[in-house]
Amino acid sequence: MKNVIGVHFWDKKVFLCWCEEESISTASFNLPADLRRDDILEQEPLLTGVLKAIRQYLKEKLNIYVFGLAIAVPDQFGIEEIRRIYNVARQCDIEVVQVVDETLAFALHLYGEYDFDGRMLSAVIADGRLSISEYDFSDKGVEKICTYIAGRWTGASITRAPFLHSYSNGLFDATEAGIIFGAGSMNACISMEQSLKSYIKEGTFVNTSLEFKMKSSDDIIEGLGYICGKLEGRDAFAGLGVSDNISPYELYVGINEDIYSAVKPETSLSKNAGLEIKKLPESTGASESFTVYEKKQDRLVKIGSLKLPKDNLSDYYKKAVWVGLGADEHRALTLLIQQMDSEKYIELPIGAGDGSGDDGDKEENVADFVEKILPIIDNLEYASKFAQDPDNPYTKGIIQSYENAVKILEENGVTLITGEGEPFDYNLQNAVAHIADVDLPENTVKQVMQTGYIYKGKVIRTASVIVAN
Question: Which of 48, 315, 451, 462 could form a disulfide with 430 if both were Cys (CB 3.0 to 4.6 A apart)?
């Protein structure tokens, strides 16, 4: 039997779990200084180094040579972020068996510890981010109902928390759950509880008697062990029902210039979802363009596209068609076009081109290239900022090289994220520290430690900043 190892990154450390007989064992280890970051899953070079460190640890400490990984990720991770994990692991010759939301891993631990049915809220409170999702517990297992909050959070208030959708705060206020469990440090949980009490008192939250229970972040890796046991087919976990979703975000399908809502948030991975279109839109060119988007913070983010010659679609223009999307555990998407009055259909993987050089693929290649050269630009930026003698010819050369590199990026559609002296934006910035400063308004960026970058609406890397409270 292949070992399935659970992996969770927390507080710049790696936490592991695995099954022995019918029980769950855990371990943790510190990463080398150059890999000790909070954004491991968001940076390909970091993730590559960490996956190799995990493989080395499993071999040297646990004598495990053949394994697959089940990785817990923040709940705001969508298709693009999950694909990155699978792709990086594949490049490292490491198999990722499943990617699991942190709140789900935590909920599974609660499912094993507490004997009750019904709705509950699972909250993961990390340094600088917060996730709150609702789950339904039954004798069939654990099912995610909705993700309300997921993203960067300063801890200031729930009102300013990263609600996942424009309507999420309304759904959160109307939850029927009677209890919320919070996984995190003691200070983080206390801050969360106080913020929640203020939110309930001042807002329109229906269940004013909502109970908060503090739990340890260790419970997340313990709960991930349930997934490991189920994936290994162990008897103690065989009956556990766990549903996996395509994305926490709504998916849209663009057909030429028309865009349609196709897949609702939290749709099960095992389902094909889509919509009926009375008539397939027809362009004036020789082919039709199909594009898939995720809707994040009222912004459509492109995650794949393809082109089909009109000759392949001649039977689909005159009748109503069903356009659907399917996905596997790697979040590889499949486009399905089927006639409503027959079983005739076309099924193609999203991203398969027609040899015409799709502009979307070029954009993705540019974004990947920019991400790979950022360490070089960072080194130039740091050398420019901290140079002791700016008049030194050597220093002048470094500064000029950095300015030229930034100019080239900007000329090719890349925008820098800074924001010093401006309000903190969790969508674009990562708060690496909080300090008191009476001269600045609360939640203002005092200093930018690392510049962030955006390419054509896609955040390649958030800016690392110090926030004044």
Answer: 462
How far is it, in rounded angstroms, from Cα 17 to Cα 19? 7
Encode pLDDT of 196-212 as tens digits: 999 999 878 999 999 99
Q: pLDDT tens, 369-427? A: 888 888 889 888 888 877 777 778 888 888 888 888 888 888 777 888 888 888 888 77
List phi, psi (to 5°) of 371: -60, -35
Instruction: Say what the pTM is.
Output: 0.74
Picking from 358, 305, 361, the residue whose alpha carbon sits closest to that of residue 333 is: 305
In angstroms, the Cα distances linking 276 to 174, 328, 341, 468 are 31, 22, 12, 50
Please give the domain boundaries of the chain with CATH numbers for all domains.
3-103+220-242 (3.30.420.40), 108-217 (3.30.420.40), 250-354 (2.60.34.10), 360-468 (2.30.22.10)
- Per the listing, tokens 């908060």 go with 212
Cα–Cα distance for residue pair 384/306, rounded to 1 Å: 43
Q: Are strands 3-10 and 67-73 parallel, antiparallel or unpaired?
A: parallel
Distance, CA of 361 to CA of 368 (rounded, Å): 11
